[in-house]
Design goal:
The complex is a heterodimer of chains A (251) and B (311). By secondary structure, chain A is mainly α. Chain A is built from 11 helices and no strands. Chain B has a two-stranded antiparallel sheet with strand order 1-2. The chains are: A mainly alpha (251), B mainly alpha (311).
């Protein structure tokens, strides 16, 4: 393998996109109305596209004829290093929107910084991601505001979603050994440094949406080390079924 | 007065001019169009389910992206067609209620289950293939908004047809298990695909007026024949066998003769006794009901913020 650390880094970003995309794809034909069905599939499609670029790059770094599909469909739970937020089950529409809102606000900052990476391939993938993420963020933040300041019921649901998902946000800013090495090489992003701006964004939107940020500061982490919630295994067993059941087939 | 209007209307149609939403039209023409276009819209929407059933299990990143894009296109087609129907003086909410209460129909084909990945291929190849034959003909339909929707939809449908055929060919040329899945899918989807064109013209309740008004441009049987002739060649090319022992080339007519369609099955499914009828509608109702609070919230938010009512 050419560069183990870079491989791990790119793979983790690929996993974030892949697992998020797979979750959003589960909304197909189940959204609250037709236009929203189209919007959610669109976002899912963008994220699959991003996953594809990143996993192709990771596969190239790994060598040994590895393909992006091998990385997506033939690894087990413990080998996936996505952030825990990405794998969280869709729940109701407010749960999905809040999950996306937290991630989109983070992605906006993350990919902006990554677009300045010394690694040209990562920089170009990031540049493309910024455009999409700007639209994704507009979609999710507008919904947080509409739901927060909509009806009593919608306010309650979106507040509950924020309370439940808050614990997975700490991980966004936790630097792993891989992050530190990549940051020092000016390839990766100082995620810790994104927190101030992210907090500000979240606070501003929540204020407009008449929502409260939870005071509970306990943060659940582990995704980047392959320690996941129990939900990931089920997502993978569904996603990987054909490739696992017929390992000799090409599709 | 009414007679004169009706004659002018028919003259316009005979001259191959399009009827537009603000033009005078006979009530029966309007009702026929509402029934037909909304049925078409509902088919797009319900058709998202059998394919959506495989999105999370699509076996490669590419297959997944193509399938999501396709299901998304169907939602888009549903949207244009609902809009085209709305030009005839009915709302999308009324149309959705008609679908959910069984007053409006959708294509029977979507009441069959998708059991293997090859079924996703079969739907693209056969079901979209049949839909294209029908829709290509409808590009020349007399009602302007419907005709324009068809022109747009046809472009995307040919991409769907190709992706379906690509899945089928990969599987038909793949491992033994994949070949079995491909043949099995063809066996199950072939006859229902032929039924998609509707009953024989002699038995169709809606054909005669529709032809005179040029809503329909070709008969069910003629369109079905075009489809069979195309599909037989495509099946041969990838080594699959059409499940019809009576299928043979007719040198005199220069097309394929084919066996009898089981119209009892067709009418059973139309009347609600298909494999997935209840489930398809229940899924639609469930998503609609679960989404109510979201739609209500969006309306409430818009109301509160109307005309800068709030700073």
């Amino acid at each position: 393998m050419r560069d183990t650390i870079l491989f791990k880094y790119v793979l983790s970003l690929g996993d974030d996109a892949l697992i998020s995309a797979q979750r959003l794809a589960q909304w197909a034909y189940k959204a609250p109305f037709l236009e929203e069905d189209i919007a959610l599939s669109n976002i899912s499609l963008d994220l699959f596209g991003r996953a594809n670029f990143l996993l192709e790059y990771a596969a190239e770094l790994k060598g040994e004829n590895t393909t992006a599909d091998d990385l997506a469909f033939k690894r087990d739970e413990r080998k996936f290093t996505n952030l825990l937020m990405c794998e969280h089950p869709n729940g109701n529409f407010a749960d999905t929107i809040v999950c996306r809102f937290f991630l989109d606000a983070y992605d906006k900052l993350f990919f902006y910084t990554l677009s300045k990476s010394r690694d040209k391939q990562l920089a170009s993938i990031a540049a493309k991601a910024i455009k999409e993420t700007t639209y994704h963020y507009r979609h999710s933040s507008n919904w947080v505001i509409r739901l927060g300041d909509g009806t009593e019921g919608s306010h309650r649901k979106v507040q509950e979603a924020i309370n439940n998902l808050w614990t997975f946000t700490g991980e966004f800013f936790k630097m792993t050994q891989t992050d530190i090495v990549m940051m020092k090489k000016k390839v990766g992003v100082d995620r810790k440094a994104l927190k101030i701006e992210w907090d500000k964004t979240i606070n501003d939107v929540c204020k407009e949406a008449t929502l409260r940020i939870p005071e509970n500061s306990f943060m659940t982490t582990g995704g980047r080390e392959g320690i996941h919630t129990e939900h990931l295994g089920h997502l993978l067993s569904d996603m990987q079924y054909l490739q696992r059941a017929y390992p000799d087939a090409t599709w | 007065m009414e007679d004169r209007k009706e004659r002018a209307f028919q003259d316009k149609i005979d001259a191959e001019l399009k009827i537009e939403p603000k033009d005078w039209m006979p009530e029966k023409y309007r009702r026929h169009l509402i029934r037909q276009i909304s049925q078409h819209a509902h088919s797009e929407i319900i058709g998202m389910q059998p394919e959506g059933n495989w999105i999370t299990r699509a076996p490669s990143l590419r297959a997944k992206m193509v399938l999501i894009a396709k299901v998304q296109d169907e939602a888009g087609h549903g949207l244009y067609l609902y809009s085209a129907t709305e030009t005839l003086g009915i709302t999308r909410n009324e149309l959705i209620t008609q679908l959910q209460t069984g007053k409006a129909k959708y294509s029977n084909i979507f009441n069959y289950p998708t059991l293997t990945w090859a079924d996703v291929g079969a739907i693209g190849w056969l079901v979209d293939g049949a839909a294209i034959v029908n829709q290509q003909s409808l590009r020349r339909t007399s009602y302007g908004p419907y005709s324009r929707a068809m022109i747009r939809i046809c472009k995307e449908e040919s991409f769907h047809h190709r992706q379906g055929y690509e899945i089928m060919s990969k599987m038909a040329l793949g491992t033994t298990e994949q070949q079995e899945m491909a043949q099995d899918a063809l066996d199950r989807w072939w006859w229902p695909s032929l039924m998609m064109f509707g009953p024989h013209d002699s038995d169709s309740a809606h054909t005669s007026n529709a032809m005179q008004w040029k809503i329909k441009r070709e008969t069910n049987d003629d369109l079905r024949q075009v489809f069979v002739d195309r599909a037989v060649k495509q099946a041969e090319l990838i080594g699959l066998t059409i499940p019809d022992s009576e299928l043979k080339w007719n040198p005199k007519n220069k097309n394929y003769d084919f066996g009898k369609i089981d119209w009892n099955e067709f009418w059973e499914v139309v009347n609600g006794n298909g494999f997935c009828n209840k489930e398809r509608i229940n899924n639609h109702v469930k998503a609609h009901e679960e989404g109510k609070w979201v739609r209500d919230a969006a309306i409430a938010y818009t109301e509160k913020n109307k005309n800068g009512a709030r700073a």
